[in-house]
Amino acid sequence: MKKIFIVLFLNVLIMAQVENTIEKTGTVPMFFYDLLDYKSTQPAKTRVDVYVEVPYRVIQFVKTAKGFTASYSITISIFDEEAERMITERSWNETVDSKDFESTSSLKNYYLSYKTFDLAPNKYTFRLEVVDLDSKKNYIRNEVFDIRDLTAPFAISDLLLITKEIEVQGKKRMVPNVARNVATQKDGVNLYYEVYSDTLRDVLLEYKIIDIKENELFSVKDKKTFDQKINQVNFSIGTPELPMGEYKLILNLKDSADNLLTSVSKTFYSRWVGMPSSVVDLDKAIEQMVYIAKESELDDIEDLPTKEERQKKYIQFWKAKDPTPNTEENEVFEEYYRRVEYSNVHFKHYIEGWKTDMGMIYITLGPPNNVERHPFEFDSKPYEVWDYYDINKRFIFVDQTGFGDYRLITPVYGSWWRYRP
């Protein structure tokens, strides 16, 4: 005989806020990091270099006799792939000094940390945590990282993007581009990598850059002879200026018969200073302006024939909205796309979150002052009520299908639906 379990929910009323669970730092992520595989000196191991870049804007500086000082800790924890068993962990503190207040708030300033680990090839979960020692705020990033076996007769390390070279005590040093943003690099995409060979080899190097839609934008070939050692390679791909967006650099290594020996790739970005980190596709970003731009303004941008022209017009639109044009930060720009990103994370259903009714209201008006959630009612379908006290508006969303597809049933009228800061 089948047992039937019935759970009754009587008039459940949940009072809550639509929370901003996405870290709100505007145009600057809490920190950047990069994980890279290199050949280890230890048998059967791979060396993993970990870079952590913390922007000045996200740490708290305290006034001192000599200027301003900030302190934070970094913890790198490495687990097995399922994050159930810790393999190793390392923690340390960093202190950053600045002579003037302006530099502490500049979008261009950051502090870079570096550590190495020797691990057996496998998949691991890396947990990186930064804790501001003054404000006590902590920021966490998690990534499952595949540590490759580089003991084969012919192998290549990961690609490290380079911002520039500087001279330290008479020696040239590379400054890693941990944020992987090449917008300000007028000489193209600069990179460093290592090739490991068990014999003398002539190799054809094929560099390709593709966009987010996998269209090939640029390619260049080079030839090198690799010795029986660790071969260090610095290469600059002199690309034309790349429009705003996300890209991938692919490096194929082939023999004289054009057979592929090995391959490696790296994702990178092109975005100007002050651009929200969530904006990676220009065409998508333009489409998402529907709640703040007039139809004629969108047409003016979308009808331009080239991506470069659309980008220029796009930048002009947002600069005109900047409430503080004398600063690097554009508060309206960053807040708008923060709301878009939040909507994509929390309101996605059959369509992208920013296109849903909840997404439309959230992007337009921001978080409501109060939310009533009614997920289980005998006499009605699941519904939510959002109240905005400052504009005296209430919006009711009903899940008609029972699968979380909440639709707005409140009549829409007037001009309230244009973006409000």
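the 2nd protein, sequnce then structure:
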Amino acid sequence: MHYLPSIKINPEGRADYSVIWLHGLGADGNDFVPIIPELRLPEEKSVRFVFPNAPAVPVTVNNGYVMPAWYDIYGMDLLAKIDVEGILRSSDYLLQLVDEELARGIAPEHIVLAGFSQGGVIALAAALRTDLPLAGVMALSTYLPRTVPVESPVPRRIFQAHGRMDDVVPWQAAKDACRRLKDLGHDVNWQEYDMAHAVCTEEIADISEWLLSVFSNS
């Protein structure tokens, strides 16, 4: 599987924290770069943002059209049939990126995994398959298929946000994931907004507040 280099946005001087943020289906690593200034994080936090690029693969639901995707989507019902192999492969890749941040001197407690839609599935899957004491997970407009193994006994801090009018990932699928994560003992900060499958200004403000809270406690 061929992965293009990640886009890295580095702070002035040495980075103390890292946010690895995965895009959704059909997008690329540039998708969330414009959000960084809107987060208004203080410079003294010295946050490096890493935006990986999904490999280009045929996507079944789009008649086999090749596009950036973290795993295959078989049909409009996201939970009817799941590409578990693809999800685990991409979550392994994400954990490799975590290892790269560790090698660059970032403590695991200072690393946040984030993802939108498909990317959120991968961020959750990766975080729930490692014992590293990560700072937390941002799961945006996403879900968590029950067929995806969640082995980590480490309780996670999770920011989960969803649009009430999402016509791509149903609100109920996200809410079911939230309930499952809470039942597994994770600390889920659930937020919902009057939006579709997107990111809104209010959500960005809440993301900023949550990031500052997990960085302050790590």
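The chain has one domain: 7-216. Residues 8 and 50 are 5 Å apart (CA to CA).
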